[in-house]
Specification:
The structure is a homodimer. By secondary structure, chain A is α/β, with parallel strands linked by helices. Chain A is built from twelve helices and 13 strands. In chain A, the strands form three sheets. A seven-stranded mixed beta sheet of chain A has the order 2-1-3-4-5-11-13, with helices on both faces. In chain A, strands 7-6-8-9 form a four-stranded parallel beta sheet, sandwiched between helices. Chain A has a two-stranded antiparallel sheet with strand order 10-12. Chain B binds a DNA duplex (30 and 30 nucleotides) through helix 1 and helix 3.
Chain lengths: ~325, ~325
DNA sequence: AACCCGCATGAAAACGATTACGTTGCTGCT
DNA sequence: AGCAGCAACGTAATCGTTTTCATGCGGGTT
């Protein structure tokens, strides 16, 4: 019956009395509208898809948490497909989500503009998270790795550490690249005479350990070390301890991410925190904003600020948290 | 056209030639079958729902990972709704998933048999994870908290620690109850003359810290402490360090869960590990098994074993891992 | 009193797939 | 040659909702 539909949804064009009768009957019969039939005719699923790589731990759970909370607040369901480690897997997942979702949230290092074009209908709204893609066709939401890294290096220098070395992440990783740039920029600005000192790493604890040993083996030991992520900082810390060095007295150390472990190592690790829940929330809200506009929204590129968290490992006891807020830039 | 459907799906009753033509045309036109239309007529969504409480960190991400991997392997999609902290929220989420999913995976302390009966059609297959529900109507999959806790206490006693105290979890929590029982059982069996010594906790780090102080304030200090989870063990460790005690020389310590932090505290924490990915995988597979049988499968109650992980905090350097496998019991 | 307008309501089409069923055409047997 | 049987394929019904459109009713205006 048509009035039933009207009563259950908008309610416009139905007497209060009939609406009342309908709702009573509906709850008496435990009537639940059939989602598929509704989807078929409305061409909306009220579902958004999240396509994620093979992530472990805190980052994954907090991101999903942010997305999920925001989605529920907006009345959307969340279809998750994670643990993709090849581009083909991700493509297959993308295609199989076709038609089940109204929009897609994608976090994947391997996804680029061409990939999206060939695997998705261009009508499907997409928000890219932490992606190097500079597309005018898709909205992109990044973490301000550059500002975070640069703020931490600035802090280390201003805390009196004359030389700061950097343990880099994987070269192909976008976040790692940005952090590298942040390190170089801060060095150039605040310690133009100090040498740029970079050793390789790949974001694993093991690689951080090797990098720590490599740093100690060189003839001039840096006064402070900034690792491109916390896991490497933890590995590096192990190397320093093995060598009998005291952190931060002999050498200062800082990481990036603020994973939970950072608080529990000895000494507690200074690091750069990303508000992951918020990252997820904002990504979802941008996507929903696109859905609700009929005309395609101009592509946006947003950046979520991060804050430095000073603990003991960097040798500055003051609790200084320089936090940036959301800086937003949009291009046509 | 009917042959299209036949060609795309089973393929029975279609010439190889026509099937070929159809597939060619389909890929040329980038044809993707409309999920909603298929759902409507088939009455299957190929989607399973996961209803989870407000979990943080590793446990959540690994569980989802296990579920997701298994779901993709079986061709199912995964609809997630997490971060529920009240029963009403969970109920609302359950109802809104109605008709979108073929089955439901539920992990929630607050869900009991009556709750399920009143919020879900009894035709919807459900697998309960870590639930106290003893229902003949639903399959339940639990972690063997009892055996894990009991094995750890046994280990502590046999390592020569004459007295073992226990920091309990929240009384309402099913896992906490089982771990408590495991402690008592092992004490009764392996140290019948030692006193049962329990202090309260609520699974938070803070409560572990308080429990640690409380233990030290009492006149007889236990030789070892077993905390019902790792976070409390970490808090307790802080209390011991503050009091100038050395772990494990002065007092031994063990936890439960094997969260990542356990490896990084000093000394590294002995604990009981749960294979969470596997928990998720098995839960999903049980659910799928129910879906694929036409007649309702008899309700199962399965238990996933866990293994004790010996590090330094318990004062036994031997690398003994006593692992139970899956013990399965089914009732009519 | 006649007419018109607005509003509540029901009838029917549409969405895009699956599937039961009917039709066609071919093969092979008598 | 005629007929039975079978395989391939198309027609049409179906799923449950939304939405458009027509209908009928009541009230207000002239």
């Amino acid at each position: 019956m048509a009035s039933v539909s009207r009563a259950m949804n908008g309610g416009s064009g139905v007497t209060a009395a009939t609406s009342e009768r309908i709702h009573a009957a509906a709850s008496r019969l435990q009537y639940v509208p059939h989602a598929a039939a509704r989807m078929l005719i409305t061409r909306r699923s009220n579902t958004i898809g999240a396509l994620l790589p093979d992530l472990h731990g805190e980052f994954f759970s907090e991101l999903i948490r942010g997305i999920d909370l925001a989605a529920r607040a907006r009345g959307f369901h969340l279809l998750v497909s994670s643990s993709h480690d090849s581009a083909e897997e991700a493509a297959a997942a993308m295609r199989s989500m076709q038609g089940r979702v109204d929009g897609l949230l994608i976090l994947s290092a391997r996804v680029d503009a061409a990939f999206l074009r060939s695997n998705l209908p261009k009508s499907l709204p997409v928000v890219l998270i932490n992606s190097a893609v500079k597309s005018t066709a898709h909205t992109v939401l990044n973490v301000d790795n550059f500002a975070g890294a640069s703020a931490m290096v600035q802090h280390l220098l201003q805390a009196g550490h004359a030389s700061v070395a950097f343990i880099a992440g994987p070269q192909s990783n976008f976040d790692a690249q940005q952090r590298d740039k942040g390190y170089r920029a801060a060095m150039a600005k605040y310690a133009p005479n100090a040498p740029i000192h970079i050793v390789a790493g790949d974001f694993t604890e093991e690689s951080g350990y090797r990098a720590g040993r490599e740093l100690l083996a060189q003839q001039t030991r840096p006064r402070a070390v900034f690792a491109a992520n916390d896991m490497m900082a933890v590995g590096c810390l192990t190397a320093f301890k093995e060598a009998g060095l005291h952190v931060p007295q002999d050498i200062a150390l800082a990481g990036f991410d603020d994973i939970p472990v950072a608080r529990y190592v000895t000494p507690p690790l200074s690091t750069v925190r990303v508000r992951i829940v918020e990252l997820g929330r904002i990504a979802l809200e941008q996507l929903v904003a696109q859905l609700e506009k009929t005309e395609p929204l101009p592509a946006h590129a947003d950046t979520l600020g991060c804050e430095i968290v000073i603990r003991e490992s960097c040798g500055a006891s003051l609790i200084a948290t320089s936090s940036q807020n959301i800086l937003s830039t949009s291009h046509p």
